[in-house]
Specification:
Elements lengths: L7 E6 L1 H5 L3 H10 L3 E8 L3 H7 L4 H18 L3 H5 L4 H16 L4 E7 L3 H9 L12 H5 L4 H6 L8 E3 L3 H12 L16
Antiparallel strand pairs: 1-3, 1-4, 2-3
The structure holds adenosine-5'-triphosphate and magnesium ion.
Length: about 200
């Protein structure tokens, strides 16, 4: 088992994060929480790379659709009138396509972040998926306000500044996908954390 300080997670700064000039701000928030950036690069992803980044299984796609249906129910929107379907799988597929189109629309910044409970802490610093629900003090709560209600109306993905792995297993898989098999993170001792 890894030492607790060695847990790693994968983070992508999305097109809206890059285009809003938030690269430095986002990295700062991880570093100020005593997490270490142990790999970092800006790059232009291909359509295929993004398509392979997001899961393709039915369960994940259905969950994406269900999220939208829940929002529609809450705000009294008819999915059939708005999107032409009320099937979660169909809506999920639609959202996934918007997501891929969005993610290739500008360069991204990929990084590996390391530290105690890195996976959970990074997601906590990011805040929940939809900016309008994110608390102030989180990245999404301080710098975004998007909602699926608006995004679906505009036929695009919700813009929420960053992606962060949900579990250590997902992190491992995503780091391999984006940095290559056998990639070794950079190792250094941070003042106040490691010595
Ligand atoms: P991320 O994976 O980016 O960390 P997340 O895990 O909170 O966010 P997921 O459910 O994995 O969210 O969805 C992936 C991405 O798809 C979201 O970050 C968002 O950009 C977009 N998205 C999710 N649900 C919707 C929706 N209902 N309508 C439009 N876009 C959506
Ligand atoms: Mg996710």
């Amino acid at each position: 088992m890894k030492h607790p300080k060695e847990e790693i997670t994968f983070v992508l700064i999305k097109p809206d994060g890059v285009r809003k000039g938030l690269v430095g701000e986002i990295i700062k928030r991880f570093e100020q929480r005593d997490l270490k950036v142990v790999a970092l690069e800006m790059f232009q992803p291909t359509h295929e790379q993004i398509d392979n980044h997001y899961p393709k299984d039915g369960a994940w796609i259905t969950r994406l659709g269900q999220k939208t249906l829940k929002t529609y129910e809450k705000y009294g929107v008819d999915p059939l009138a708005e999107l032409g379907t009320n099937k979660d799988v169909e809506i999920g597929k639609m959202v996934r396509k918007w997501l891929v189109d969005f993610m290739v629309s500008a360069p991204l910044v990929k990084m590996v972040v390391q530290g105690i409970h890195a996976v959970d802490v990074v997601r906590k610093i990011a805040g929940p998926t939809f900016g309008y629900q994110a608390e102030m003090g989180t990245i999404r709560g301080d710098f975004s306000i998007d909602s699926p209600l608006l995004a679906n109306k505009e036929k695009r993905a919700v813009m929420n500044l960053i992606h962060a792995s949900e579990t250590p297993e997902e992190a491992e898989h995503e780091i391999e996908h984006w940095f290559g098999k056998g990639f070794k993170v950079h190792s250094y001792k941070r003042y106040g954390i490691d010595e």
